[in-house]
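Amino acid chain
________________
===
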Amino acid sequence: METAGQLSSRPLACVWLFQNGKMVIREATPSDAPSMARIHVDTWRSTYRGIIQDEILAGLSYVSRQEMWHDALTTHRGQNFTYIVENEAGEVVGFVVAGRAREAMADYEGEIYAIYLNQEYQGRGWGKQLFLRAVERLVSEGMNSMMLWVLADNPTRGFYEALGGREIGQKNIEIGSQRLVEVAYGWHQLNAVNKIGQAN
């Protein structure tokens, strides 16, 4: 994973009680890589069906994703931070990865590189808490703004807009032989994001 700068390691677990169950957010460890790989592949297949070519989604590999996330949690651990969310049974059902912005874009300091949540847990407020935990960590690392990239056809774009993100750019990408458009969302004042999150 291409990142910049060194980030501190701060193991921490937070617990939330919802009407639909207990949620725990904690910092990820290398042993979480298999679960992260499963979530990564499964959420791509559920979210991007009809957007990304079927043969590309079918060809996604749990093994290669596990190697990628294990590398992020070991070799590149000082260059990013990762939080996972567990359900009441202690199963990993989502994760977020963030750190310093990987490319210059209007002076945005931080970036959420990835955020994934199993489809059955979406719409419960769990993704929002995972997102806000990443924002809190960016602020604690001295970053006051952030951005992220999302496919233009991603049906969950409203999630970022509801949390105050505004569109700041676009770029063309290729996934396999398919050409797609990614949209960048930016937040200029991270201290205001928690207030928006609590209001929503």
The radius of gyration is 16 Å. Confidence is low (pLDDT under 50) at residues 1-6. The helical segments are 33-47, 54-58, 62-73, 126-140, 157-162, 193-199. The longest strand covers residues 166-175.
